[in-house]
Amino acid sequence: MNRRNNDTEGTDLSKINFRTFTNIRPVHHVVFAYEKDMTIIVQPGKIDCFFHKVVADEIIDIEYQVIDSTHGDLDISFQMADPTGRMIVADFKKPENSHRHTATIEGDYRFCFDNSFSTFSKKTVFFDMLIEGEEPEDRDYDDDKEMELGNAAETYMMRVRDISESVTRVKDKVSTARRLQELHSAHEARDRNLAEDMCTRVLKWSIGHVVLMLLVGITQVIFVKSLFEDTRNYRKLVPGFSS
């Protein structure tokens, strides 16, 4: 993954991090896809942007969620823009969301996570992006093979196609299951962070209340004790003091 800085109209460049997706792996073949899932930390007052090249008619499927925050709410703003800069999606301060868009033009699409509204809170964001497209089927080999072997091989070729389709379906299901497991893991991480944060808050409040109770108890003991102290020593020290 590479990081770069570009000019963005109307935006403070010091607050934006630009990144480009690389080393994206193919998931399956007949309907091919590129998938990328990442967990990033968006600093307070900053915008993290990612770019990925998309071909026309490919489907962009992106899902994100905020799984941790140092202070405040679990929310983030999100924007998706096409290569011309036209805004396609704009979410403002949402904990999670998903979007599906069919690309109309080819080029580098921009995906930005905006934490500029936060002053002190940095956000941990998990997102999963899937780019789907139709891959042209190469049937020349099958047709040539059938013509070469004749009608006797028709049954064999049909079985080969059936096996190929079955394998492709299995790979699709496995890929979908893996993606759902990753999203479930992100949900689990968010819930765990919320539980740990709540536990920390309860512990701090409990310690504060215990300390306050001890201080109040000590103050009461000192005050009650002072009511029963003998003041005759003060009479000797202070001339003219009388009861």
TrEMBL record:
Residue spans crossing the bilayer: 207-228
InterPro entries for the chain: Emp24-like (IPR015720), GOLD_dom (IPR009038), GOLD_dom_sf (IPR036598)
Membrane-topology annotation of the record: Single-pass membrane protein; Single-pass type I membrane protein
Domain called GOLD: residue spans: 47-131
Domain of life: Eukaryota
A Pfam family of this chain: EMP24_GP25L
Keywords: Developmental protein, Membrane, Signal, Transmembrane, Transmembrane helix
KW Transmembrane (keyword) present: yes
Main localization category: membrane
Record localization: Endomembrane system; Membrane
Record keyword Repeat present: no
Recorded GO CC terms: endomembrane system; membrane
Similarity-based family: Belongs to the EMP24/GP25L family.
Protein name: GOLD domain-containing protein
